[in-house]
Structure formats: structure tokens, C-alpha cells
Design a protein that fits this description.
alpha/beta, seven-stranded parallel β-sheet, six-stranded parallel β-sheet, 50 helices, 31 strands, 48% helix
Length: 1364
Amino acid sequence: MSSPKWTQEQKNVIDSRGGNLLVAAAAGSGKTAVLVERIIQMILNSDLKIDIDKLLVVTFTNAAASEMRERIGDAISKKLDENPEDEHLQDQLVLLNKASITTIHSFCLEVIKSNFHKINLDPNFRIGDETECSLMKLEAIDETFDILYEQNDEEFCYLVDCYAEKRGDSNLQNLILSIYSFVMASPYPKVWLKESAEDFNITYDFDFATSKWAKAILGTVKIQMEGIEKSLCKAIEDVYGIDELVTFTDKLKIEYEKIKEILYACDTSWSDAYRQISSMTFENYAKGVKRIPKDAPSYIKEEKDKAKKIRDNAKKSIEKIKTSVFNKNYDDLKDEIKFLYPIVKSLSDVVLMFEQIYSQKKRDKGIIDFNDIEHFALQILTETDENGDFVFDKEGKNIPSDIALEYREKFYEIFIDEYQDSNQVQEVILSTIAKQKEPNRFMVGDVKQSIYRFRQAKPEIFLQKYATYDTDLSSKYKKIMLYKNFRSRKEVVDSVNYIFEHIMSKNLGEIDYNEEEKLNLGANFEEVEDEKIILGGATEIHLMEKKVPEVEDPDEEEEEGEDLDASQIEARMVGKIIRDIMRPNENGEIMQVFDKKLETYRNAEYKDIVILLRATSAWAPVFAEELINMDIPTYADMGQGYFETMEIQVIMSFLKVIDNPMQDIPLIAILRSPIYGFTPEDFIDIRITDKKVSFYEAMRMFVGEKIDLSNEEEQDIAEDEISDHTGNEIIDVNINEEYTDDVSYLEYQNIEENSYVEADMDDYYQNINYEDFEYENEEFIYNDEVMYESYINENVEDNLIYEINSNIEGDEESQKSELELKVRRFLDDLKELQEKSMYMSTDEFLWYIYTNSGYYAYCGALPGGSQRQANLRILFERAKQFEETSFKGIFNFINFISKLKKSNSDMGSAKTLGENANVVRIMSIHKSKGLEFPIVICSGMGRNFNTMDFRKDVLYHHELGYGPQIVDFERRISYPSIAKEALKCKINIENISEEMRILYVALTRAKEKLIITSSIKDIEQNMHKWSSNISTEKMVSKYDILNGKNYMDWMMPAIIKHKDLEDIRETYNLSTSISMEDESKWSVKTWSRDDIDFEKHEKEGIREVLNTMDLSQHDTEYYEQIEKKLNFEYPYLGVVKKAASISVTEIKKRQEEYEEQEDSLGLYKHKTTLKKPKFLSESQKSEKITGARRGTIVHLIMEVLDFEKVNTESEIKAQIQDLVKRRIITEKESQVLSPRKIMRFFKSPIAKRMLSSKFVKREQKIYTQIKMNDIYLNDEIFKNNRETYENESVMLRGVIDLYFEEDDGLVILDYKTDFVDKNNKKEIIHKYKKQIEIYADVLSKLTGKKVKEKYLYLFGIDEQVKVD
């Protein structure tokens, strides 16, 4: 690999020494590469011989730090290969591991760990994660409010009255928490809280005109008035010289002069501005304006209407300014500010109290949060007085501590990457450890890419240095600009420059996008001669019409269409754009991109395309779904939306139902989920039982339970509709006693799967009256054939026939019976879970639900299974942290999760995607920062900016302090205070600047092709709006930018006057002669809903064919096709009525059906000797324990036994009794398997091997796909159509009882409780052979390890059997 060719500016950055250096590096300019090269040159310089650990390199992310460390290591190794004897280089390779190449948080953490004693911090402290800290915050805020309520503090109570909601104080609590989070980004949070409150404690000589609030308001008003003045000036120009409009023009000129006076006043003082605006009056156009003659040309009226509209908009804007900020005199303003003082003081006091309580809770637990990391480091690095307050020098700077001075001596230079995203705390920390006499900071960044203001990043820090640093390289405080873009094609660079030189300015954007700031082409893309290849091309803008067209003839019958929202229609438009990119156009041309690895051009692939959205939470799932439906492989990196994932919603619904089953929506959700698998038809059958009660009560009634309705009206309903008509009182009854409380979902599932003759024969054995038999040494002999006939006769009479062939449809009664079983199973599960929730911790209970329901394993078998399981584990970890707080129980956990959702503290998804996965990626603009993609589609550009923050009761700002809402209880109204209006002005301008930078980041991600899409409500109307104020001036009106609602409102006024949009201007009859010449290339296309109605296009194509056909003729070319369509039969009918999943047990049974279809009774036609089961003692004859249940109990005991306490029968017996005490099994069930039997198992050779194994896993749930042809061997449809169903599969589920690992592979062990003797032992082994072979195959795939042996352990004869 050749060395990079550096530009002169890059060389200056690399070689410059001495003093602070600020590098302003544009997008794609290679700023990080330059930073790394500067470091490498420093440590490799033989004259300097600086050790790598003498440099502090601060990066924005851990990934960036790792990459930088790796690149430096590679460079050192390369030099060492050239000079293997160089000791300095050898030392650097060793020192690299402990070099301070890190994030600011990691550096601060190192400072704290080395000096914890300076701040009296527990040396064993740990960092609490976000959720754990959120829990402690909730505890602290509750405790804070409890104390204040108990004190009955008057100011606090008034604060509650003002800002708490009617039925609680959660709004006020959230306000306190948000202020706390905001203020912790300040280096001196307590100072800010106190000073912001004291700002309202004004004296008699207070002059509002000189206040910071007045300055903030005037700054915004001036921008608005400038825009109004320019638009009105343009209106006058448009009508000037038209004789018919002379009097109209004169009126405009009078108003124009008044607006100019207001504009001048804004530059002088608040008093002048107040006087001019408050006295502003507008002309009466009804008087003194001549009417336009009827025979006048039409353009005259058009010009007048256009000018009148501009004037009316100006009037509305000025009236709004007057009523919002210039509606009070000085005295009123002073009274208002004084009135607010007790409120804001109380607000600060509450935040301070909360901070103390929260800090103490963290100290008690030895926890620090991310805010603490920076603040504790600051305390260690600066001097404080005896009260813990910071000490400042004469210049107002922090006085460094001895530790800070040590760091000054240690570090030769401090490198700061992404400097534009630093906050105030970080700036103070880094400036404290930097040298002062010989400045040694290297700061690199791009203020145009500062997009983290919501995290309290302060681009002003970068801008202040950028404005004051010198371009002279000999200066101690110098700056170098890197303006060449080595990422993008010329078309992309030109388009980005064109937009931002029109919209970004110092007032709105915080920097002038001039010749110094604009991107310069640095990338060199080779061109190709093949005319069929498309490379790059003009920047495309696609506008989708959101408005539904009106029907010309309302009486005409219209086909029902889809009701699509903006995100759906835009997603479908984007899908069509992607399709067009991926395939040749009508001229046979196809897009290609340059592949760095191949070093040549290739056809564009899905992985080359990224869709960038301003926010992904709402639109990304819609885009992903629509694109996938269009067969476009897509991955949406949503980050947030964790709580909206299917698996988390199901579990949260389950918890809600366990807590309160009377909630219909979560109840239906969990019943419909794969855990229980109810169908819509099932819901209908249950609901018609009683339409007026809750669904849970309807379920209970469906299975014959009576419910007690305390409400009198409901009582009448119950008596009328669900009484047993016997006059008996309606009371609660227990769920059918046939199933015990401890039966879980999987256990019931086993019962269903074992509903075959052989299993029920085992049940029948359990319930025979054994007194009819003669015993010989506890044994008896009987004829199985006679027993079988007796069983059949007895059960036929009882109408309990079990269907062996699952393809036979039952009648309504049997179907209802199946539904009753499903309902009973759920009700039993619910009862069991409600009991367990009373004594189990939330995390234990959650994991019990995961495993007991099989849902965790099920999610693992779904597409994206690893991510789904990771999401479930995250919820489990959150539950663990929740248990460590004072809150307990499911109810509080549900509330906690709800609060997390409301506060947008979503936990995100950690799913990652390989960079080579061939999918279209959807991500937020923020996540795309630092990345680049061949083709970028910026979508949702027409979505309005989020201004919800302005609706908060209290605004806050680092410079302006508080901006509270005034609540007037006497008049029962609330309105913004003058301070709040000031903050709205300031924050709005900052938000506009931030959004502009976000747009810059989005557009500069593209390497070869940039596409912008938007859905617009009325394209024509917006076209006229965008063109209304365009002029020959390069800059778009600041007034239009200030009032723009979305990115399109900013970009289109600039783009619409470009020379490439001549066709658009003609199409929409835009009255402008301006055609801006520029090197950028643009293409604008408008879309309607019909363009994405793929179904409609298909229908129109069919209709066109039908219209050209002679339907009376049978020999047309279409006849055979139509006949084939009409006689079409679905080729996969065999799959329709099959379950989507099947158990290993059922596969085993179907195998037996296939092998024994001619002789289903063969297994029972021989003599059998059987020992009398010990659990069938005289006192237990009345209790029915089925064969399936008995097997479940044995498996449960073997699952939970502690293998370290099985050396004696007494140890085993003690464990079983413990299971009874814990209510895992009943006393009766504990006698199913004797301790002696268990002891015999542990004495067996296979158990001894297991106990000595290095790894043992019990109850391993498995899910995989298996071909249907291998399952339905005896099914006529499948037997006759093997090829048709060759690729059809179902989900296979099962549970491996136990497997363990030895050096050369895995060993599977499956427990069996079937009746076994010497006569049927081989048949039993054969019966389970298929099942255990499937287990082995799946386990091998699951673990990636070889299964070397498979065993059955037959508890009936206490013997292990190897299955070959």
C-alpha cells in the first residue's frame, strides 16, 4: 500500500508544533487520518523521541479510540520492521497498551480511580447503568417530594399547584428530573441553579431593556423584521410601474417605511423597538385604493394578489410579535419577574434537595453515574474551598490542583477529536490539565457537524476559538482549515455547497457558509466509456403528493383503496426508486458504484444504499415493512423501539395479565401469542358466552366456572345469562380438578401430545382396582389384551375416543372440547403464576416465565432470534436491578417500565449487522455521522421539526436560565412569561442551527449518489410558497428559514430557482424569471399515489388486455390461460391444515403409525408382569395421576435436583421434601419417584460419567425446522406428492432432558418412565429411537459439537440403554 498523498494544508496540520492548534475540517477531509498521522510523526521523530504514553488522545467513541490505537500500532510495527534494533520503537510498542488513547469518560474514570481518596469515594465504586440509575432517581424524587409534603412548604405547594397535573405530581417530578439532567452538563450546576433563580430577584432599579432576556428577544425580532422588510420590498418591486396599481403601491410603501423604522429600532434599544412596534398601524386598503378595470390584463390582478398576500403575512407576523413580547410596559414586566421569583427559587431548591438525596443513595450503594464521572474528575483536578465550592483566579478560571499540575507535566500534547461536540464540563477539565504558558492542545472538528446539542454539546466552544485563533502558523493560538472533500463525487459536493451557501449563515447556522467553509472537490473518481453504465449523476429530489385527489364524479363507484399515511407512501416511493437503481432502465443503462476492495466499478447492490431519517422510531419500522413487502432486503437500525419489539410486548402483556387479568387488551395479546396460540375464532366462541363481562370472566364462564359479580347490574346479567337455573347462589369455584395447580403450559402440551391409545393405556393401568388381583411377592399377572379391550369399551362408553389421525376433523363438540382444554390450561397457568409472583423475586419470576412457557427458546428459533433473546435478557437484567431497589412486585415493575417508556429512556437494541450483508440499511442521521455510503437516500425531509419542547411548563437555558409559564389562578389561565418568550426565541434559533447541521451531516454521507425524498400535502401550493420570496440574492430569506417547518422549506426556495428546474417552473406556472447558474446538477420528480399503486397498475394492465379480446371466441390466445386461472387449485392444500410447529413426541408417534398401521394392537397382545407401584397405596387410590403427569413429575424432579447432594437416599429425600415445601410439587406427587429409584440412577455408569463431566445442561429446549415429508409419512396427500412438498417445513420443538460434554464430544441422556419389561424392552427402545436421533442432530447444529453417544434411562427397570 502506498503512502497517502497529503495536501499542503494537511501537511501543515501534521508538522505544525508549539501552541494550541484548532483544525477546522470539513466533511470527508480526512481529519481523523491527519490526527493519527500527526501522532505517529511525533513518536517516530528521532529528534523529539516522545513516548506514546506522554500523549493524551481523547476521542468521541470507544470504537474510534480502538481504531486509532490499532492504526498507531500498525505504523510503529511497520517502522520496526525497517529498523528492528531501534529501542525507542520497541518501547513504543510496549507503551502503546497503556497509552492514554481514550474517551473523555475513560480518562476521567482513570483520574477518579487514582485519586478516589481526594473526594472521599469508596474505592470499590462501580458505574451504574442507565436503568439502575433511573430506578434510584425515581426513589430519590419520591423521597424528595415526601419530605417536602411533610414539611408543608408553602412555596413548594404553590409550585405543585402551578405545574402538577390534576391527579398527581408526576409532571412536576419529570420537570425536576429533566432540569437535573440538563444542569449536570454545566461545570458548576449548583451555581447555575442559584443564579438562575436569583435572576428573578430584581431590585427597584432593574432595567429590562439591558437584560439578557431583552437582548435574546430583540435578536430574533430583528431577523423576523429583516425578512418582512425584504419580502415587502420585493412585493413593491413586483407591482411598481403598473399604472392600475399606483394607489395600491403607495399604501405598500407607507407600510414599508414603518417596517424599516422598526428594523432600525431593533438595532438601537428595547425601548425604541417597543415604541415602534406598539404604535405600528397598518393602512386601510378598502379606502383610497383604485379598483382594477375589468378589461385590464389578468396578470395585473395576479401581481396585486401576490403582493397583497405578502403584505397580509407581514401584518400577521408583526401582530404576533406585538401580542407575544411587546404587549407589556416596563412596570408590568418588572412585576411579572418579581412574581416568578418564589416559583423559580422553589424549583431550584427542589432540584438541589433531589441532588443531595440522589447523591447519597449512590454513595450508599457505591455507585457513580456518567455525570458523576466528569464532575468528580473536575473536583479532583481543581481547587475547592472548605465548603467544597470551586476556587477561581482573577481571570475567573479554575485554579488547578496538584494532581492537575502533575498531568500538565506528564502530557506533551493533548489531542481532542470531534472537538465541536465537547460540553462545558469537558472543556474545563481539558483546559485545566493543559499547559498555559506553552499551550499544547490539538483540537480537530467541524462545527458544521456538531449535532449533539440535545446531549448538551456546546458548539460555541469551538466557534469562540475559531473566531479568535490566527491563521498565522507561528502564533500560539492558530487555526488551519481543511476544506477538500476526499469522499464524494463532484455532483454531490456541488449540491451540498449549493444548498448551504443559500441557507447557512452566522445568525441561522452559527457560521457563514462562505468560500472558506464550502467543500472543495478532492476525490478522484475514474470515468468509464461504456454508455450503458450510469455513474453518479444529478442530485435527485422526489416529491410525493400526500393529498388524496378529489373524485370528479362522486356518484361513480370507486374501488376500495388502501388508506396510506405519509410514511407508507413515501416508503413505497423509495422502494420504487431502489428498484430502478438495481435494474437497467428503458435504455438498458444501469447504475454502478466504485468498489474499493475490487478497485473497479460494479453494479450497485442493496448494501450500497442507505436510507437516512431524522428520527427512526416512527418511520423506520414502516419503511422496513414496506420495502420488505417489495422484496427489498432491509435492515432498520432503530436503536430505540426496544419496548415496541414483539417479544417485549408479549412478555409485558403477560406480566400485566398476571397482575390483573381483567385487562382485555394485554389478555388478548398473550392469548394470541405463540405461548397459547388462540385464534380469532376461539375469541369469538369465548366472547359469545357473555358479551358484557370482561374477557377473563368470559373465559371462566366458558369452562363452566361461576363468577361473582359484585356490581348489582352485573349481578342481574349473571343471573339471567349464566345461572344454572337451579336457584343456587352464584359463587366462585375452583378450576376443574382434573389438572393440578402446578401443571404448566409445557406440561399440558405434553398431555395433548400424548393423547394416543398407548399413553391412555398407561393412564388406565393407574386407575384399575388392584384389589381384584392376587399378589405374589408384590407382583401380579394379567392379560394385556383383555385389559385393552376393557379400556376401549370403558372409554367408548364415556365418549373419550382419541383420534390417532390428526387430519380427521372433529365435530363441533370435540372442537369445543379442545378449546376448553386450551382455556383451562391458560387459567391453570395463570393461577400458578399469580401464586409464584407472590414469593418469587421479579427477575426470578421473569426467567421462570421465559423458560416455563418455552417462549425464550421459541424467540431464538425466529428470524433474528439471537437479537430477540438478547432483548429478553436485557429485560431480565433490568428486573434484577429493579429488585435491588425499595420497589417490589410485578405491579411496580410494570409501572417502572411504563415510566421508562414515557420518559423516552428506551433501552435500545444492540443488534449489529455485518458490513457485507447485502441489505438496504435504514438509520438515523445521528448514527450515520462519521460513516459514508455510495448511495444515500435522505427521506422524510418534509416532516415538520419537533417543537414540542416549547410547550413545557418551564424552559431552561445555560445562559438565560429559567423561562417559566405563568399560572393565573384567579383568571384560571396560564401564559408564557417574558422570560419564557426570550428563551423560546433563543432556543428556537439554536434548534434551527442544529437542524441545519444535521441536514449537512445527512447530505455529506453520500459518495456517489444523493437522493432526497419527501411527501408533501399539496405540491402545487408548496411550489408557489417556495417561489414566493426568491430573488437574485444568493441567500434564502432568513425570515423564510426562521419560519420554515421542515428541511424542504429551507432547500426548495434555493433549488427552485436553479437552471435545471425550468420544466418544474413551467409545469407549476411559477411566476419568476430567475434562473440561477451553478455547477450543481439537479433533477426534481413529482409523484402521485397512482405511481405507487402497484395493484392498480396490474389491474389496469389486465383491463387493457380484456378490452382487446373477443370474449365470444374460444380459440383466442388467452382462452387457455383464462381457463387455467379459473380452474386453478392451490397446490399446497396438504400444508393448509397442518400446524406451524410440531413436537418431537408427535413425530415419534407418527413414525409409529407409519410402521404399525396394519397392527395397532400388536403391542398389547402378550402377557406382562408388573410390580405394584408403591405410590398406589391404599390411601392414594382416589387421586388420579396420569401417565403423562407422572412422566412430567419425574422430569421435573430430575431437572431441579442438586447433583451435589445425591450421595445418599436421605439427601435425595430431603431435596424432594424441599420441593414440596416450595410448592413445586405436591405431597402426593412426591411419591411418584422414590429416592431409592433416583439413587439407582446416580449409581449407574452413565450418571457417574455425567457427574464427572466438565459441563452438564438440563432441560435444553430446542427449536428447528424439519421437512414435512419426513413427518407425515402415512398421510395420503404427502405420500402422493413428495416433490410438491419437498421444500415445505415446520418448526420442530422439543426438550432434551440432559446432555453433558466429554473431551471427545457430547452425550445425550433422555429419561423414560414407560412400563418396561423383558418382553417389550426392544420395542420401547425402537419407539424412542427417532426422537433421540432428532435430538442429537439438532443439538449438534445448536452447539457445533459432535454428539458421540445417545442413551435412554428406563426408570421402569432402572437401566441405561445405548441407542445406536
